[in-house]
Amino acid sequence: MSDYNNPANIEHGQGYAGELDDEKGNPKLYAGRFVQFENKIMGTRALFRDVKSKVKQFDGDIAQMISKFAPDFENPTNNYVEYVQVRVGKEKIETAEDLRFAVMGIIEFENGLNSPRTGEYLDKDALDTAQKLAEISLPRNISYEEALKRIIKPTKVASK
User: Fold this and answer.
1) In a domain, 73, yes or no
2) What b/e string do you get for 68-86 counting C-beta neighbours within 10 Å, with b at 16 or more?
3) Per-residue model confidence as pLDDT tens digits over 44-74
4) pLDDT tens digit sequence for 136-151
5) What range defines the domain where residue 116 resides?
6) Total number of domains in the chain
């Protein structure tokens, strides 16, 4: 089960946008190693970025990616791999849609298929926003509101 707006227990050290700091300016951690995010969308954005980096590293091979992401000593890795492969519908991530299904599968596996938390992470609008934000590079210390401004273009008002 994941909490702290971190849908898949992303560990400290990667510097994702939306990570929170404590009052001393150090990363806010739970269980000694997992980062906390400003909100669920920023945590899900980090998961999209993390999975995307593993797609490149392992040429989309889900078994290799999940084995790195969720090693045997902490997780039922074989079950995890099978679950994500079924969710994606194949053994490799090749498209943005595959990436989305992989992220959804990871969130479901980590948080429980029918948990309220999973429902919050997988809300269509929240997931869409997280995926759009994941397409751009953002600094660690950017707020969610500032990040949104980078993907939402102001509409032009017609002049008379």
Assistant:
1) yes
2) ebbeeeebebeebbebbbe
3) 999 999 999 999 999 999 999 999 989 899 8
4) 999 998 999 999 999 8
5) 40-139
6) 1
